[in-house]
Design brief:
The complex is a heterodimer of chains A (171) and B (291). Chain A has 171 residues and is an alpha+beta fold. Chain A has two domains: 77 residues, Ubiquitin-like (UB roll); 71 residues, DNA polymerase, domain 1. Chain A has five helices and five strands. In chain A, strand 3 and strand 4 form a beta hairpin. In chain A, helix 2 crosses helix 5 and helix 3 packs across helix 4. Chain A is globular, with a radius of gyration of 16 Å. Chain B is α+β, with helices and mostly antiparallel strands and 291 residues long. Chain B folds into three domains: 47 residues, Uridine Diphospho-n-acetylenolpyruvylglucosamine Reductase, domain 2; 113 residues, Uridine Diphospho-n-acetylenolpyruvylglucosamine Reductase, domain 3, CATH 3.30.465.10; 108 residues, Enolase-like, domain 1 (2-Layer Sandwich), CATH 3.30.390. Chain B has a five-stranded antiparallel beta sheet with strand order 4-5-10-6-7. A four-stranded antiparallel beta sheet of chain B has the order 11-12-13-14. In chain B, strands 1-3-2 form a three-stranded parallel beta sheet, with helices on one face. In chain B, strand 8 and strand 9 form a beta hairpin. Chain B is globular and about 60 Å long. The termini of chain B are far apart. The chains are: A alpha+beta (171), B alpha+beta (291). The structure holds FE2/S2 (inorganic) cluster (2 copies). One FE2/S2 (inorganic) cluster (FES) binds next to loops of chain A.
Chain lengths: 171, 291
């Protein structure tokens, strides 16, 4: 099938790629743009490993076609990671044993990145709701939840304000 | 786990959508939020020649209200509907149902119209629309027609949409001063319901039940309306006891789903409990539950 040109912004960089319509956005990010930090576990929307931020919302990268991303602004795990060292979410995951094999971790980091960007001090139930669509076969989740709670506690202590305004869903 | 090849169009007007659907007929599938279709493509359960994307048709999204009547564009995202104050206050049952739909990342893309048109028997939004007696505005190149929610959903994954037609808008009349309740059992948060129940209750000035609706989902190809239960409640003072007695009238014989994950016997066993919870929650929200 004919390839299509897609222009989009990924991690603040304008990029374009030529893709078959059937290619998923997650596969395009990995295969066309070399951003292999986004992982694919199930490839049909169940595990959340492929979660990325599309136009300020967390989205399953395997459930969007790359052609649908025309004009979109995307943040991947590469964009949520500092050039040197770890983000505070990543550091907390390490500190609290929030990963073992690490396969699910990019998706976990992205949903937490989205959560903390909009809501620096989420409640425990908001943390669990944000993580609810992410599967981890290793940790049993408690370490991940504990890491997120630690970040929230730190933000509360430092009185952190929301970093970015997400797309306003309210009518 | 890769889709078979297909051609792709992203029209920006409804006219173009209908033109494409007419041109490709049964070879074309429309994609809304893609949260059900893309997995079906990946698993090759669906192999359309052509995919027509509705995401770039602005006129299909939005929520408006006039005189207590809400019009919800079919492409309105579930996340947006969930965050909508109008829906939260005027259609609380829809809000409650949406809380059980998937997860934040699937709700960010998933649409109300997509979920209703997909007609999964375990899905929450079709059941909510049945409970509200919503009207479905269907559009095609020949024009528009409006059908009742009960005539829209025909069977598992089957609606009254003809080739070349799409669901365009959902019209729901908000009923002031009613209480609503939603209860479902799933193994994990956001999983498909094993059984779900949705209830609406309105009380009269004396605190008696003036109107009741109860729906049970995930037990048969189409969510079941339990009018016998509703009839037993209307005209009475609603107590927990009365609700427990009334849910015995759920027609368990019309349940048909039976599989290795959730047996028919288990569905029959838990449905009255979930129905009681939904009804009690609805009555509680009217402020009228007596013990
Ligand atoms: S790879 Fe996308 S949800 Fe599993
Ligand atoms: S750390 Fe192995 S899957 Fe989560």
């Amino acid at each position: 099938m004919n390839k299509r040109r897609v222009d989009l912004t990924v991690n603040n960089r304008a990029v374009s790629m030529m893709v078959e319509p059937r290619l998923s956005l997650a596969d395009a990010l990995r295969g066309e743009l070399g951003l292999t930090g986004t992982h694919l576990g199930c490839e049909h929307g169940v595990c959340g490993a492929c979660t990325i931020i599309v136009d300020s919302d967390p989205v399953r990268g395997c459930l969007m076609l790359a052609v649908q991303a025309e004009g979109a602004e995307i943040v991947t795990i590469e964009g949520a990671t500092p050039v040197v060292g770890l983000s505070e979410i990543q550091a907390a995951l390490r500190e609290f044993h929030g990963l073992q094999c690490g396969f699910c971790t990019p998706g976990m980091v992205m949903v937490l990145h989205h959560l903390f960007s909009n809501n620096p001090v989420p409640s425990d139930s908001e943390i669990r709701e944000a993580l609810s669509g992410q599967l981890c076969r290793c940790t049993g989740y408690q370490g991940i939840v504990n890491a997120a709670k630690a970040v929230a506690a730190r933000h509360m202590h430092q009185n952190v304000q929301p970093r970015e305004t997400s797309q306003d869903h309210r009518e | 786990m890769k889709p078979a090849p297909f051609d792709y169009f992203a029209p920006t007007t409804l006219e173009e959508v209908f033109e494409l659907l007419n041109r490709y007929g049964g070879d074309a599938r429309v994609i809304a939020g893609g949260q059900s279709l893309v997995p079906m493509l990946a698993l090759r359960l669906a192999r359309p020649e052509v995919v027509v994307d509705l995401n770039r048709v602005p006129s299909l999204s939005g929520i408006t209200e006039e005189d207590g009547v809400l019009r919800i564009g079919a492409m309105t995202r579930q996340a947006r509907a969930l965050a909508s104050d109008i829906i939260g206050t005027k259609l609380p049952l829809l809000h409650q149902g949406l809380l059980n739909v998937g997860h934040p990342p699937t709700r960010a893309r998933g649409t109300l119209g997509g979920s209703i048109s997909h007609a999964d028997p375990a899905a929450e939004t079709p059941m909510v629309m049945l409970a509200y007696g919503a009207k479905m505005v269907i559009a095609g190149s020949a024009g528009e027609r409006t059908v009742e929610a009960a005539e829209f959903t025909l069977d598992t994954f089957e609606t009254c949409l003809e080739d070349g037609e799409i669901l365009k808008e959902i019209i729901v009349e908000a009923s002031a001063d009613e209480g609503t309740g939603f209860s479902e059992l799933a193994r994990r948060r956001g999983d498909f319901a094993m059984v779900s129940a949705a209830a609406r209750i309105r009380l009269d000035a004396d605190g008696r039940c003036a109107e009741a609706h109860l729906m049970i989902g995930a037990v048969a190809p189409v969510p079941l309306r339990c009018d016998a239960v509703a009839d037993a409640l209307v005209g009475t003072q609603l107590t927990e006891r009365r609700i427990r007695d009334a849910v015995r009238l759920i027609d368990l014989n019309s349940f048909s789903f039976d599989n290795a994950e959730v047996s028919l016997a288990y569905r029959r066993h838990i449905a009255p409990t979930l129905a009681s919870r939904a009804l009690a929650q609805a009555v509680g929200r009217t402020g009228g539950l007596r013990t």
